[in-house]
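Before the break, one more example. Copy the sequence into your notebook; we will annotate it together after we see the structure.
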Amino acid sequence: MWRHTLAQIPSTFGKLVYISSLRDTNTGRYEHHGLSQIFGEEETHAALRESHQRTFAEWLSYDLARQKADLELYLSSFQVDKRTILSTWIRLTPYRNLLPAEAGEPERKLYLADFEAILELLKNEHDVVLTDPDA
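Here is what the structure looks like once it is written out:
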C-alpha cells in the first residue's frame, strides 16, 4: 500500500517532500492515519522513517544534472509561477526541513550544497529577482 502511494509521486524530490510532511516537527515521529490503522503506530513510524532515509539517499546518489531535472519535474506539478516558488525557497529555506533526522553531517552538507547550487541555477534561468519584503 505504501509503495503504491509513493509510486504516484513522479519525482524523487516530491517523494522526499511528501514523506517529510508526515513527520511531526515537535516529536520527530512519522504519522499516517491509514497505515497506522492497518499496521499500528510503531510499525508505521519505522516504515516511514526508513522510506525517508532511502528516498533521501536516492536523491543524494543523483548527479547535479539529474537532481536538477528531478526538481524541475517537481516544480512542473504546480500551477504557481516557478519564480514565486523559487524566491520563496530562497527566503524561507523550507528544503532544510526535508532532511531525515538520521542523516549524518556529510550527507547534510552534500544535500544543502547540491540543492543550493541547483537553486542558484534555477534562479538565474527563471530570472528570479529577490525583493526586500520589508521595503
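The mean pLDDT is 92. Residues 2-125 form one domain. Try to locate both features in your own notes.
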